[in-house]
Amino acid sequence: MITDLRGTSLREDDIRSGKVLTTNWHGKIDFAWDAGIAIGQFLHGLKAGKLLGRKCHQCQRVMIPPRMFCERCFRRSDEWVELKDTGRVNTFSVSYVNWDASRRQTPQVPAVIEIDGASPGMGIMHLLGEVGDNVKEVLGRVTVGTPVQAVWKPPEQRQGSITDILYFRPLGNPGTSTRGR
Amino acid sequence: MREQLTRNLEARAVHGDWGVWYRYTYGPAGERFFREIKDRQRLVASVCPKCGRRFLPPSLYCEDCFVEMTEFQPVAGTGTIDSFTVLHDSLEETRLAEPIIVALVRFEGVTGGCLAPLKGVKPDAVRIGMKVKPVFNTQQPTNSIADLSWSPA
Amino acid sequence: MPKVAILGAGMTKFMRRSLETGRELCWEAASAALREADMTLDQIECVVMATAPDAFDGVHMKGEYLLDGAGAKGKPYTRVYVGGGSGVFAVIAGWWHVASGAFRNCLVVAEEKMSPTQPHPQGAFNAIYDQFLERPLGVNLLWIFALEMHRYMLTYGIKLETIAGVAVKNKRNAKDHPASQVAGDFTIQQVVEAEVMAYPVTRLMVSPVTDGAVAMVLAGEEQAKKRAGKQVWVEGVGWNLDTSYWTNRDLAYPQYVENAARMAYKMAGITKPREQIHIVEPYDPFAYKELHHLEGLQLADKGQAPKLLEQGFWDRDTTTGIPSSPSGGLLGVGNPIAAAGLAKAAEIYWQLKGEAGPRQIKRQAKRGVAQAWGDLMQVGTVVVLGI
Predict the structure, then answer these.
(1) What is the pLDDT of residue B7?
(2) Is the backbone peptide bond immediately before B28 cis, with ω within 30 degrees of 0?
(3) What 3-state class would DSSP assign to C214?
(4) Which chain B positions have a beta carbon within 8 Å of A100's beta carbon?
(5) Class for domain C4-118+208-386, per CATH?
(6) In angstroms, rounded to a whole number, what is the distance separating the alpha carbons of residues A36 and C80?
(7) Of the partner residues C126, C196, C201, the one whose CB lies closest to the CB of residue A99
């Protein structure tokens, strides 16, 4: 039986008005993450306009994101494989929220994209672009299996980051390859 | 996994931060503690109806008897330094202009104690067992433990 | 296998922001559980704590910070943490303590205080994403769920209106739960037309930010047999984690839940889940996820849980189906991340004992399942309870 229910519920206004005292903490917590061997090389590849995968000779999987060990065979992976910069949409969303839950006027279209040249099911997350400005438009242009191609930043603007790819656009869309080396 | 990076420029560190900050409520007992400091410039302890101990800072429940504490009593008089330390470096590891003395102070007949800066005395004059009294920041209160400090009694 | 029973459970209200600190929430839930179990703290031999990211309460080493409120001072104390899966994992870990013979009883506590995180707890979740390949894209927590939900819908041709039925069902069920935060009567249309957060997720399809705590007392046969009446026993436990490379996974089906369920069912001697399980509390932080989990729990074929929903199979007062989330779940009662799972396990316990009050299901139940999920959408934790 649920009895003795305790708990003092507060409204945002109780805090703002000072009815209840609070204390704030803005801890300065910064990080410098070592990219590691696999991702370090992957980011290096992005700067050069390439998507790199890693192959395990035992299970024969070509994996992206690349990893220096195969988590299935539990052994070191064996070779780098240059993948294509095209793929197929596995799933997608139309997001009106920023990282901090604040609202966006125009949506972002995040997607999981299975990259050509990697084993089936090997996807990465990225954004889709040139697919419309609202839910209806996006649903009209994208579905599972839609072939897409990466749109790259010009070589001189790349930094060795996942954002060196601006977004992926549907292959049917007009426009020339922006890969450039 | 023995691939070596032979070119320094290939070693990559990616920078980022935590992003969020925090706003803490004090809870029913903590709320009372800070109200008493703010409005009446005094410390209060909570009293356990079962074991009779008085707890500073006050708590909603006695951690051993596990029963609710609803009675609060002021903690009057002077406290005793149980331990102290002298800080010379800031959190950012720079040298402080003036060292800060932090003291854990206990009161007779009260379980627990409070940690706060000790002012008005030079570091080499501080002793364990020294008598101190609480000083409350009423000028521009922060409504936090930073409003409490000690000075020699 | 040594037998472990549940002697009592307790909880706090589930609130958007509580005055109480995390420790105080633990004490409120723990003392309520002890009262129902008719025990005092000094009789408790060990304590298990489930609490999810330190990043929510904003207290490092949160397990240690909470232990005084959980009655663990001076006792053997263990914290378990698998994100949202923790609340059910706490029962599993409590079971280890007692079934091993090392302890005669165990107090299990689960807590979450998310409200301190500013500007919004969603921001703390940001760090769940890969710092190299995902965070620079400006990710929001909801993306993962929206992407999974959309894959599920597109794989099986499930309509948004159908999934919305879970939110309607659970928010209505929660009207009978005294601790609930977001209970109410809603229509399918209201749920579908609510503000789009990350399509296909609308605001009414997401569980809220919640502060709260739940606790439970487990005990071995020696102690349980001295009690009057029938006891509720932990008959099976299972847990399983999938890869953190979530973009390499089949998002349409929670394999990790199936793996955990099979482990728990084997232990409980369940060979025909759809006949031998009479009530279920699957983890429902999002409307679609309850359906996803019901399939992983082997209670419906892949892609079929939505059809059964439309037929009333999962309704609380069904006599031919399997009531699902009779408590109102996370969508109706609230979602204090780790505590929510334990609230689900507690609901199965109360239901089996016939003590669920206005939420009591109509059909007879001798065996029920509580399941939780979390981490990077990768853990399945399952307990089978029986009377």
Answers:
(1) 56
(2) no
(3) strand
(4) 19-20
(5) alpha beta
(6) 29
(7) C126
Task: Work out the angle at residue C201's Cα, subtended by the Cα atoms of residues C199 and C204, and round it to the nearest 5 degrees.
Answer: 140
**CB distance C90 to C111 below 8 Å:** no
* For chain C, domain boundaries: 4-118+208-386
A110 touches chain C (CB under 8 A): yes
pLDDT number for residue B105:
98
| Contact criterion met (CB < 8 Å) for C131 and B16 | yes
**C214, C220, C7, C2: which is closest to C105 by C-alpha?**
C220
Instruction: Search chain A and give the residue with CA nearest C343.
Output: A2
ipTM: 0.91
On whether the B23-152 domain is CATH 2.40.50.140, my answer is yes
What was the pLDDT predicted at A146? Answer: 97
Which of A91, A121, A139 comes nearest C248 by C-beta? A121
Place of tokens 């959980």: C70
- Name the amino acid, one letter, at C134: E
- Nearest-CB residue to C116 (from B16, B23, B60): B23
Chains that touch C (3 or more CB pairs under 8 A): A, B
Q: The sheet that has C4-11: what strands, in order across it?
A: C77-80, C47-51, C105-113, C211-220, C4-11, C232-241, C379-386, C367-374, C279-281
pLDDT (average), residues B22-37: 96
> Residue C19 has what DSSP assignment?
S
Question: What CA–CA distance (Å, rounded) separates C170 from C284?
Answer: 9
Task: Quick: pLDDT tens for C194-216.
Answer: 999 999 999 999 999 999 999 99
Find the mean pLDDT for residues A162-169: 97
- Residue identified by tokens 């409200």 is C115
A79 strand-pairing partners: A55
The answer to whether the CB atoms of A10 and C18 lie below 8 A apart is yes
Mean pLDDT, rounded, for B40-51: 97
Task: Kindly report, residue by residue over C311-349, the tens digit of the pLDDT.
Answer: 999 999 999 999 999 999 999 999 999 999 999 999 999
Flag whether residue B11 sits within 8 Å of chain C, measured between CB atoms.
no
Helix orientation angle between C160-173 and C287-296, rounded to the nearest 10 degrees? 90
Q: What Å distances lie between residue C240 and A147, C246, C343, CA to CA?
A: 34, 15, 20
Q: Do residues C211 and C114 lie in contact, with contact meaning Cβ atoms separated by under 8 Å?
A: yes
With a cut of 90, say whether residue A125 has pLDDT above it: yes
| Closest Cα in chain A to B91 | A28
CB C122 within 8 A of CB C142: yes
In this predicted structure, which of A50-59, B3-12, C80-89 has the lowest mean pLDDT?
A: B3-12
Whether residue C140 contacts residue A97, with contact meaning beta carbons closer than 8 Å, is answered with yes
What integer is the mean pLDDT of C45-67? 94
Checking if the pLDDT of B1 tops 60, the result is no
Question: What is the band of A178 on the pLDDT scale with cuts at 50, 70, 90?
Answer: low
Cα(C98)–Cα(C188) distance, integer angstroms: 45
Would you give the distance in Å from CA C285 to the centre of its chain? 9
Contact A109, A87 (CB under 8 A): no
- Answer whether B64's CB lies under 8 Å from C73's CB: yes
DSSP sequence for chain A: --------B--HHHHHTTSS-EEEE----EEEEE-HHHHHHHHHHHHTT-EEEEE-TTT--EESS--SEETTTTEE--EEEEEPSEEEEEEE-EEEE-TTSPEEEEEEEEEEEEEBTBPTT-EEEEEE-SS-SSHHHHHHH--TT-EEEEEEPPGGG--SSGGGEEEEEETTS--------
For A10, the closest of C17, C132, C196 (CB atoms) is: C17
pLDDT of B10 higher than 70? no
In Å, how far from its chain's centre is CA A102?
A: 19
Interface residues on B facing A, Cβ-Cβ cutoff 8 A: 1, 3, 5, 10-26, 28, 31, 34-35, 38, 142-145
Q: Return d(Cα C60, Cα C22) in angstroms, integer.
A: 13
**What is the domain partition of chain B in residue ranges?**
23-152
